[in-house]
Amino acid sequence: MKANVYTGRNSVEVQTVPDPTILNDRDAIVRVTSTAICGSDLHLYDGYIPTVKHGDVLGHEFMGEVVEVGKAVTNLAVGDRVVVPFPIACGACSACERDLYSLCENSNPNAGIAEKFMGHSPAGLFGYSHMLGGFAGGQAEYARVPFADVGPLKIDDDLTDDQALFLSDILPTGYMGAEMCDIKPTDIVAVWGAGPVGLFAIMSAYLLGAAKVVAIDRVPYRLDLARKLGATPLNFEETSVLAELQDITAGRGPDHCIDAAGMEARNGVTVVDAYDRVKQAMRLETERPHAIREAIMACRNGGTVSIVGVYGGLMDKFPIGSLMNRSLTVKTGQCHVQRYMRPLLERIRNGDIDPTVIISHHLKLDQAPHGYEIFKHKQDNCTKVVLNP
Protein backbone atom coordinates (compact mmCIF):
# COMPACT_ATOMS: atom_id res chain seq x y z
CA MET A 1 0.00 0.00 0.00
CA LYS A 2 0.97 3.66 -0.21
CA ALA A 3 1.69 5.62 2.95
CA ASN A 4 3.20 8.94 3.96
CA VAL A 5 6.42 8.24 5.86
CA TYR A 6 9.00 10.27 7.78
CA THR A 7 12.25 10.58 5.82
CA GLY A 8 14.14 13.09 7.96
CA ARG A 9 13.71 16.55 9.40
CA ASN A 10 11.33 18.60 7.21
CA SER A 11 10.97 15.66 4.84
CA VAL A 12 8.16 13.20 4.20
CA GLU A 13 7.59 10.92 1.21
CA VAL A 14 4.72 8.77 -0.01
CA GLN A 15 6.20 5.31 -0.37
CA THR A 16 5.05 1.74 -0.82
CA VAL A 17 5.04 -0.08 2.52
CA PRO A 18 3.70 -3.49 3.65
CA ASP A 19 -0.04 -3.79 4.12
CA PRO A 20 -1.12 -3.97 7.77
CA THR A 21 -2.32 -7.30 9.12
CA ILE A 22 -4.28 -8.51 12.13
CA LEU A 23 -1.78 -9.10 14.96
CA ASN A 24 -4.19 -9.47 17.86
CA ASP A 25 -7.75 -10.72 18.19
CA ARG A 26 -8.84 -7.19 19.20
CA ASP A 27 -7.43 -5.60 16.03
CA ALA A 28 -9.26 -4.29 12.98
CA ILE A 29 -7.98 -3.21 9.58
CA VAL A 30 -9.47 0.01 8.19
CA ARG A 31 -9.33 1.17 4.58
CA VAL A 32 -8.67 4.86 5.03
CA THR A 33 -11.04 7.18 3.15
CA SER A 34 -9.97 10.45 4.79
CA THR A 35 -7.01 11.47 6.88
CA ALA A 36 -5.56 14.84 7.85
CA ILE A 37 -2.37 16.69 8.63
CA CYS A 38 -2.40 17.91 12.22
CA GLY A 39 -0.41 20.70 13.82
CA SER A 40 1.03 18.01 16.08
CA ASP A 41 2.41 16.29 12.98
CA LEU A 42 4.49 19.38 12.32
CA HIS A 43 6.37 18.79 15.58
CA LEU A 44 7.46 15.44 14.14
CA TYR A 45 8.18 17.00 10.75
CA ASP A 46 10.33 19.69 12.36
CA GLY A 47 12.32 17.12 14.33
CA TYR A 48 11.27 18.11 17.85
CA ILE A 49 9.73 14.81 18.97
CA PRO A 50 12.32 12.15 19.89
CA THR A 51 12.30 8.49 18.77
CA VAL A 52 10.80 9.10 15.32
CA LYS A 53 12.49 6.77 12.84
CA HIS A 54 13.09 6.94 9.10
CA GLY A 55 10.21 5.16 7.38
CA ASP A 56 7.64 5.61 10.17
CA VAL A 57 4.09 6.03 8.81
CA LEU A 58 2.69 9.33 10.09
CA GLY A 59 -0.82 10.55 10.83
CA HIS A 60 -3.26 10.21 13.71
CA GLU A 61 -6.47 11.72 12.32
CA PHE A 62 -8.23 9.21 10.08
CA MET A 63 -11.44 7.41 9.30
CA GLY A 64 -12.56 4.81 6.81
CA GLU A 65 -14.18 1.45 6.17
CA VAL A 66 -13.56 -1.69 8.20
CA VAL A 67 -12.21 -4.42 5.92
CA GLU A 68 -11.15 -7.04 8.49
CA VAL A 69 -11.72 -7.67 12.21
CA GLY A 70 -10.07 -9.88 14.80
CA LYS A 71 -12.00 -12.68 16.48
CA ALA A 72 -12.57 -10.69 19.69
CA VAL A 73 -14.04 -7.64 17.92
CA THR A 74 -17.81 -8.09 18.07
CA ASN A 75 -18.93 -4.46 17.91
CA LEU A 76 -17.68 -3.88 14.36
CA ALA A 77 -18.30 -5.67 11.10
CA VAL A 78 -16.69 -5.58 7.69
CA GLY A 79 -18.17 -2.65 5.79
CA ASP A 80 -18.74 -0.44 8.84
CA ARG A 81 -17.73 3.18 8.42
CA VAL A 82 -15.71 4.38 11.42
CA VAL A 83 -13.73 7.32 12.75
CA VAL A 84 -10.70 6.31 14.82
CA PRO A 85 -9.55 8.21 17.96
CA PHE A 86 -5.85 9.05 18.03
CA PRO A 87 -5.13 7.66 21.55
CA ILE A 88 -5.10 3.88 21.65
CA ALA A 89 -6.95 2.65 24.72
CA CYS A 90 -7.68 -0.80 26.15
CA GLY A 91 -10.91 0.21 27.89
CA ALA A 92 -10.22 -1.85 31.01
CA CYS A 93 -7.27 -0.36 32.94
CA SER A 94 -7.54 2.08 35.84
CA ALA A 95 -7.14 5.11 33.56
CA CYS A 96 -9.69 3.92 31.00
CA GLU A 97 -12.20 3.14 33.74
CA ARG A 98 -11.96 6.83 34.73
CA ASP A 99 -12.42 7.94 31.08
CA LEU A 100 -8.76 9.07 30.94
CA TYR A 101 -8.18 7.28 27.67
CA SER A 102 -5.02 9.11 26.62
CA LEU A 103 -3.42 7.73 29.79
CA CYS A 104 -4.22 4.07 29.06
CA GLU A 105 -1.84 1.84 31.01
CA ASN A 106 -1.83 -1.03 28.51
CA SER A 107 -1.57 0.41 25.00
CA ASN A 108 2.04 1.61 24.86
CA PRO A 109 4.43 -1.33 24.35
CA ASN A 110 7.36 1.09 24.69
CA ALA A 111 6.25 2.55 28.02
CA GLY A 112 9.78 2.27 29.38
CA ILE A 113 11.06 4.81 26.87
CA ALA A 114 8.28 7.27 27.70
CA GLU A 115 8.93 6.86 31.42
CA LYS A 116 12.51 8.06 30.96
CA PHE A 117 11.23 11.28 29.36
CA MET A 118 8.05 11.87 31.35
CA GLY A 119 8.19 9.91 34.59
CA HIS A 120 5.19 7.80 33.62
CA SER A 121 3.93 6.69 30.23
CA PRO A 122 0.77 7.96 28.54
CA ALA A 123 -1.18 5.85 26.05
CA GLY A 124 0.13 4.67 22.73
CA LEU A 125 -0.69 7.02 19.86
CA PHE A 126 -1.05 6.43 16.14
CA GLY A 127 1.89 7.65 14.06
CA TYR A 128 3.59 9.53 16.87
CA SER A 129 7.06 8.15 17.62
CA HIS A 130 8.35 4.95 19.15
CA MET A 131 8.29 6.53 22.59
CA LEU A 132 4.49 6.44 22.23
CA GLY A 133 4.24 2.94 20.85
CA GLY A 134 5.70 2.96 17.35
CA PHE A 135 2.26 2.39 15.84
CA ALA A 136 1.88 3.05 12.11
CA GLY A 137 -0.28 6.09 11.46
CA GLY A 138 -3.29 6.76 9.29
CA GLN A 139 -1.80 8.80 6.43
CA ALA A 140 -2.00 5.64 4.39
CA GLU A 141 -4.35 3.54 2.32
CA TYR A 142 -4.92 1.11 5.21
CA ALA A 143 -4.33 1.15 8.96
CA ARG A 144 -4.24 -1.44 11.72
CA VAL A 145 -6.38 -0.37 14.69
CA PRO A 146 -5.53 -2.07 18.01
CA PHE A 147 -8.27 -2.39 20.64
CA ALA A 148 -10.83 -1.90 17.89
CA ASP A 149 -13.55 -3.06 20.30
CA VAL A 150 -12.96 0.16 22.30
CA GLY A 151 -11.85 3.01 20.05
CA PRO A 152 -13.54 3.36 16.65
CA LEU A 153 -16.93 5.05 16.43
CA LYS A 154 -19.39 3.96 13.75
CA ILE A 155 -20.61 6.79 11.53
CA ASP A 156 -23.91 6.63 9.66
CA ASP A 157 -24.23 7.80 6.08
CA ASP A 158 -26.06 10.99 7.10
CA LEU A 159 -22.68 12.63 7.73
CA THR A 160 -19.86 13.17 5.25
CA ASP A 161 -16.24 12.33 5.97
CA ASP A 162 -15.50 16.04 6.29
CA GLN A 163 -18.13 16.37 9.01
CA ALA A 164 -16.94 13.34 11.01
CA LEU A 165 -13.16 13.16 10.47
CA PHE A 166 -12.13 15.65 13.15
CA LEU A 167 -13.84 13.59 15.86
CA SER A 168 -10.56 11.65 15.70
CA ASP A 169 -8.62 14.43 17.45
CA ILE A 170 -8.88 18.17 16.99
CA LEU A 171 -12.58 18.74 17.64
CA PRO A 172 -12.53 16.81 20.95
CA THR A 173 -9.19 18.43 21.80
CA GLY A 174 -10.52 21.95 21.30
CA TYR A 175 -13.68 21.05 23.19
CA MET A 176 -11.74 19.55 26.10
CA GLY A 177 -9.59 22.69 26.24
CA ALA A 178 -12.74 24.75 26.75
CA GLU A 179 -14.47 22.25 29.03
CA MET A 180 -11.50 22.22 31.43
CA CYS A 181 -12.14 25.93 32.01
CA ASP A 182 -15.53 25.33 33.67
CA ILE A 183 -16.91 28.36 31.81
CA LYS A 184 -19.60 30.54 33.37
CA PRO A 185 -21.96 32.82 31.36
CA THR A 186 -20.06 36.04 32.15
CA ASP A 187 -16.59 34.63 31.47
CA ILE A 188 -14.04 35.96 29.01
CA VAL A 189 -11.81 33.33 27.41
CA ALA A 190 -8.53 33.97 25.60
CA VAL A 191 -7.17 31.38 23.14
CA TRP A 192 -3.53 31.36 22.07
CA GLY A 193 -3.29 29.94 18.55
CA ALA A 194 -5.94 30.25 15.83
CA GLY A 195 -5.01 27.02 14.11
CA PRO A 196 -7.48 24.12 13.90
CA VAL A 197 -7.45 23.25 17.61
CA GLY A 198 -7.67 26.91 18.61
CA LEU A 199 -10.60 27.46 16.24
CA PHE A 200 -12.44 24.50 17.73
CA ALA A 201 -11.65 25.81 21.23
CA ILE A 202 -13.27 29.11 20.22
CA MET A 203 -16.38 27.36 18.93
CA SER A 204 -16.52 25.17 22.03
CA ALA A 205 -16.08 28.07 24.46
CA TYR A 206 -19.14 29.73 22.95
CA LEU A 207 -21.05 26.43 23.00
CA LEU A 208 -20.28 26.19 26.72
CA GLY A 209 -21.57 29.70 27.37
CA ALA A 210 -18.61 32.10 27.24
CA ALA A 211 -19.55 35.78 27.03
CA LYS A 212 -16.52 36.70 24.92
CA VAL A 213 -13.59 34.90 23.30
CA VAL A 214 -10.32 36.51 22.23
CA ALA A 215 -8.11 34.79 19.61
CA ILE A 216 -4.36 35.43 19.61
CA ASP A 217 -2.29 34.66 16.51
CA ARG A 218 -0.13 36.41 13.92
CA VAL A 219 -1.50 35.00 10.65
CA PRO A 220 -4.14 37.34 9.16
CA TYR A 221 -6.27 34.71 7.41
CA ARG A 222 -6.43 32.58 10.57
CA LEU A 223 -7.47 35.61 12.59
CA ASP A 224 -10.10 36.42 9.95
CA LEU A 225 -11.60 32.95 10.40
CA ALA A 226 -11.52 33.36 14.18
CA ARG A 227 -13.41 36.66 13.74
CA LYS A 228 -16.05 34.93 11.61
CA LEU A 229 -16.51 32.46 14.48
CA GLY A 230 -17.23 35.36 16.83
CA ALA A 231 -13.84 35.87 18.46
CA THR A 232 -12.06 39.18 18.96
CA PRO A 233 -8.76 38.81 17.06
CA LEU A 234 -5.39 40.02 18.40
CA ASN A 235 -2.33 39.96 16.15
CA PHE A 236 0.62 39.63 18.52
CA GLU A 237 3.01 41.05 15.92
CA GLU A 238 1.04 44.28 15.82
CA THR A 239 0.07 44.89 19.45
CA SER A 240 0.86 44.04 23.06
CA VAL A 241 -1.30 41.06 23.91
CA LEU A 242 -1.04 41.62 27.66
CA ALA A 243 -2.02 45.29 27.35
CA GLU A 244 -4.92 44.53 24.99
CA LEU A 245 -6.26 41.80 27.27
CA GLN A 246 -6.06 44.18 30.22
CA ASP A 247 -8.12 46.72 28.27
CA ILE A 248 -10.70 44.13 27.19
CA THR A 249 -11.16 42.85 30.75
CA ALA A 250 -11.04 46.16 32.66
CA GLY A 251 -7.65 45.31 34.08
CA ARG A 252 -8.48 41.90 35.57
CA GLY A 253 -7.32 39.59 32.80
CA PRO A 254 -9.27 36.82 31.06
CA ASP A 255 -11.10 34.38 33.32
CA HIS A 256 -9.66 31.48 31.35
CA CYS A 257 -6.65 31.17 29.06
CA ILE A 258 -6.36 28.28 26.60
CA ASP A 259 -2.97 27.42 25.11
CA ALA A 260 -3.71 25.82 21.76
CA ALA A 261 -0.29 26.69 20.33
CA GLY A 262 2.12 24.36 22.11
CA MET A 263 5.79 23.72 21.72
CA GLU A 264 6.50 25.81 18.62
CA ALA A 265 4.72 28.99 19.71
CA ARG A 266 6.19 32.22 18.38
CA ASN A 267 6.28 35.84 19.48
CA GLY A 268 7.29 37.66 16.32
CA VAL A 269 10.89 38.79 16.27
CA THR A 270 11.33 39.83 19.89
CA VAL A 271 14.44 39.10 21.95
CA VAL A 272 12.55 36.47 23.94
CA ASP A 273 11.41 34.75 20.75
CA ALA A 274 14.97 34.68 19.43
CA TYR A 275 16.20 33.31 22.76
CA ASP A 276 13.71 30.43 22.69
CA ARG A 277 14.30 29.62 19.02
CA VAL A 278 18.07 29.43 19.54
CA LYS A 279 17.76 27.27 22.64
CA GLN A 280 15.30 24.96 20.89
CA ALA A 281 17.48 24.69 17.77
CA MET A 282 20.46 23.77 19.97
CA ARG A 283 18.27 21.22 21.80
CA LEU A 284 18.88 23.03 25.10
CA GLU A 285 15.11 23.10 25.53
CA THR A 286 12.47 21.20 23.58
CA GLU A 287 9.80 23.91 23.64
CA ARG A 288 9.26 27.52 22.60
CA PRO A 289 7.17 28.43 25.63
CA HIS A 290 6.11 31.97 24.84
CA ALA A 291 2.38 31.18 24.57
CA ILE A 292 2.13 29.38 27.89
CA ARG A 293 4.23 32.04 29.63
CA GLU A 294 1.94 34.76 28.29
CA ALA A 295 -1.23 32.83 29.11
CA ILE A 296 -0.14 32.49 32.72
CA MET A 297 0.82 36.16 33.02
CA ALA A 298 -2.44 37.30 31.36
CA CYS A 299 -4.88 35.16 33.33
CA ARG A 300 -6.87 36.86 36.08
CA ASN A 301 -6.17 36.01 39.72
CA GLY A 302 -7.83 32.69 40.52
CA GLY A 303 -8.41 31.91 36.85
CA THR A 304 -7.79 28.79 34.79
CA VAL A 305 -4.99 28.03 32.36
CA SER A 306 -5.96 25.17 30.03
CA ILE A 307 -3.17 23.57 27.98
CA VAL A 308 -4.05 21.44 24.96
CA GLY A 309 -1.20 22.55 22.70
CA VAL A 310 1.35 19.74 22.52
CA TYR A 311 4.55 19.91 24.57
CA GLY A 312 7.27 17.30 24.43
CA GLY A 313 9.78 17.86 27.20
CA LEU A 314 11.51 20.76 28.93
CA MET A 315 11.16 24.54 28.84
CA ASP A 316 13.06 27.50 30.26
CA LYS A 317 11.88 30.49 32.28
CA PHE A 318 8.52 29.05 33.34
CA PRO A 319 6.71 31.66 35.52
CA ILE A 320 6.01 29.43 38.49
CA GLY A 321 5.91 32.43 40.85
CA SER A 322 2.98 33.98 38.99
CA LEU A 323 1.23 30.63 38.81
CA MET A 324 1.55 29.88 42.52
CA ASN A 325 1.06 33.29 44.06
CA ARG A 326 -2.10 34.11 42.12
CA SER A 327 -3.97 30.86 42.80
CA LEU A 328 -4.16 29.86 39.14
CA THR A 329 -5.55 26.46 38.23
CA VAL A 330 -3.76 24.56 35.47
CA LYS A 331 -5.51 21.76 33.59
CA THR A 332 -3.96 19.94 30.70
CA GLY A 333 -3.59 16.67 28.82
CA GLN A 334 -3.68 14.86 25.55
CA CYS A 335 -7.37 14.62 24.74
CA HIS A 336 -9.35 11.67 26.08
CA VAL A 337 -11.00 11.44 22.68
CA GLN A 338 -13.17 8.39 23.31
CA ARG A 339 -14.96 10.33 26.08
CA TYR A 340 -16.09 13.07 23.69
CA MET A 341 -16.71 11.39 20.35
CA ARG A 342 -20.33 10.38 20.77
CA PRO A 343 -21.56 13.62 22.43
CA LEU A 344 -19.78 15.73 19.82
CA LEU A 345 -21.17 13.55 17.04
CA GLU A 346 -24.62 14.57 18.24
CA ARG A 347 -23.52 18.22 18.35
CA ILE A 348 -22.54 17.94 14.69
CA ARG A 349 -25.73 16.15 13.78
CA ASN A 350 -27.81 18.81 15.54
CA GLY A 351 -26.01 21.62 13.73
CA ASP A 352 -24.47 23.05 16.92
CA ILE A 353 -21.00 22.95 15.37
CA ASP A 354 -19.76 22.69 11.78
CA PRO A 355 -16.28 21.12 11.62
CA THR A 356 -15.98 21.66 7.88
CA VAL A 357 -15.41 25.41 8.18
CA ILE A 358 -11.73 24.90 9.02
CA ILE A 359 -10.92 22.84 5.90
CA SER A 360 -8.97 24.78 3.29
CA HIS A 361 -7.44 22.01 1.17
CA HIS A 362 -8.37 18.55 -0.08
CA LEU A 363 -5.38 16.70 -1.54
CA LYS A 364 -4.60 13.19 -2.72
CA LEU A 365 -2.38 11.08 -0.49
CA ASP A 366 0.42 11.42 -3.06
CA GLN A 367 0.38 15.17 -2.39
CA ALA A 368 1.09 14.81 1.33
CA PRO A 369 4.59 16.38 1.10
CA HIS A 370 3.07 19.46 -0.51
CA GLY A 371 0.37 19.50 2.16
CA TYR A 372 2.97 19.51 4.92
CA GLU A 373 4.82 22.41 3.34
CA ILE A 374 1.83 24.68 2.83
CA PHE A 375 0.48 23.90 6.28
CA LYS A 376 3.81 24.53 8.00
CA HIS A 377 4.59 27.75 6.14
CA LYS A 378 0.99 29.10 6.21
CA GLN A 379 0.88 29.28 2.40
CA ASP A 380 -2.18 29.51 0.17
CA ASN A 381 -4.37 30.43 3.18
CA CYS A 382 -3.93 26.89 4.49
CA THR A 383 -5.84 26.18 7.70
CA LYS A 384 -6.38 22.40 7.43
CA VAL A 385 -5.35 19.76 4.89
CA VAL A 386 -7.48 16.66 4.37
CA LEU A 387 -5.86 13.83 2.42
CA ASN A 388 -8.04 11.37 0.51
CA PRO A 389 -6.24 8.10 -0.24
From TrEMBL:
InterPro entries: ADH-like_C, ADH-like_N, ADH_Zn_CS, GroES-like_sf, NAD(P)-bd_dom_sf. Keywords: Membrane, Metal-binding, Oxidoreductase, Transmembrane, Transmembrane helix, Zinc. This is Glutathione-dependent formaldehyde dehydrogenase. GO terms for molecular function: oxidoreductase activity; zinc ion binding. Belongs to the zinc-containing alcohol dehydrogenase family. It comes from Mycobacterium kubicae. Residues 196-263 form the Alcohol dehydrogenase-like C-terminal domain. Residues 25-153 form the Alcohol dehydrogenase-like N-terminal domain. Its cofactor is Zn(2+). The chain crosses the membrane at residues 189-208.
